[in-house]
Design goal:
- It is a single chain.
- The strands form 3 sheets. The chain has a 6-stranded parallel beta sheet, sandwiched between helices. Strands 8-9-7-10-11 form a 5-stranded mixed beta sheet.
- α1 packs across α9 and α7 packs antiparallel against α8.
- It has 2 domains: 109 residues, NAD(P)-binding Rossmann-like Domain (Rossmann fold, 3-Layer(aba) Sandwich); 101 residues, Dihydrodipicolinate Reductase, domain 2 (2-Layer Sandwich), CATH 3.30.360.10.
- The chain starts with a strand and ends with a helix.
- The chain contains 9 helices and 13 strands.
- With 244 residues, the chain is of the alpha/beta class.
- The structure holds nicotinamide-adenine-dinucleotide.
Length: 244
């Protein structure tokens, strides 16, 4: 019996559960945990797939899933991920910013590429020597909780700080910071009322060339801060891990 645990039944959790329902990911049972029980119940009711709701994190561990997907928040990840690792269970972490503050054995911790890609090329370039990575993220002010009426740079700095200042919006910066550490990633965040999409432009200078990666993602209808690509990257990672 191979059960998948899911912490967080919001935008990403719902897309992931639907992929399990459609057998894109093959497992036997889905276990849902959300602090907001109504969300867990709504999701379970939308599925025909064998699904169990648990009312506590401890109950989730007791059911011994082969893997748990965290799709809740940085605070949730900081609380639960160390305990999942201590229980010897694999975990996919969406709220990657949390990992910047945790000193964990990462053997069982898996970070999807999230709302971006090209991590494979960046890690390859790192093998050759130093890399310089810069990220410019542009979102509609609604997705950044600002009221700007004109395009405005609302943050310039470094990825770790960006992920702390924007814990729900800038996990992409955290993911890049984890990949290139100890090197730093230069980050610019722009609130632009003229855009609907969440756009991440990544430039990489490395020993033997340059890369320009750009992702223009439609915002998720239930959560404008989140892009569908983030959910699908977790689904792909889950699919791969369950094949092992
Ligand atoms: N890595 C990436 O590229 C990337 C991209 C987008 C979103 N994210 C992150 O993924 C996470 C989920 O995103 P989302 O859009 O699905 O969010 P969401 O707000 O739509 O859903 C989160 C769900 O988690 C639940 N939750 C919150 N804290 C909890 C806790 N302590 N225990 C149990 N349940 C809890 C909420 O009730 C909610 O139902 C967020 O942290 C978000 O910042 C990462």
């Amino acid at each position: 019996m191979r059960a998948v645990g899911l912490i967080g039944c919001g935008a990403i959790g719902t897309v992931l559960a639907e992929a399990i329902e459609r057998r894109i990911v093959v497992c036997d049972e889905l276990i849902l945990f959300d602090l907001d029980k109504v969300k867990a119940e709504r999701l379970k009711n939308s599925l025909a797939f064998p699904t169990t709701i648990v009312s506590s994190f401890e109950d989730l561990l007791k059911l011994n899933p082969v893997i748990i997907v965290e799709a809740a928040s940085q605070d949730a990840a900081k609380t639960y991920v160390p305990r999942i690792v201590a229980a010897g269970i694999n975990v996919i972490v969406m709220s990657s910013g949390a990992l910047l503050d945790l000193n964990l054995d990462l053997t069982k911790v898996h970070v999807p590429s999230g709302a971006i890609g090209g991590i494979d090329s960046i890690t390859s370039a790192l093998l050759a020597g130093e890399v310089e990575v810069a990220l410019t993220t542009t979102k509609n002010p609604k997705a950044l909780e600002t009221q700007d009426k004109k395009p405005k740079v609302i943050y310039e700095g470094e990825a770790r700080e960006a992920a702390r200042l924007f814990p729900r919006e800038m996990n992409v910066a955290a993911t890049l910071a984890l990949v290139v550490k100890p090197a730093k990633v230069k980050v610019t965040v722009i609130a632009d009322p003229n855009t609907r999409r969440n756009t991440h432009k990544i430039t990489v200078k490395w020993q033997f060339g340059e890369m320009l990666l750009q992702f223009a993602n439609d915002p998720h209808p239930d959560n404008p801060r989140t892009s569908a690509l983030a959910a699908w990257s977790a689904i792909k990672l889950l699919q791969n891990l369950l094949k092992q």
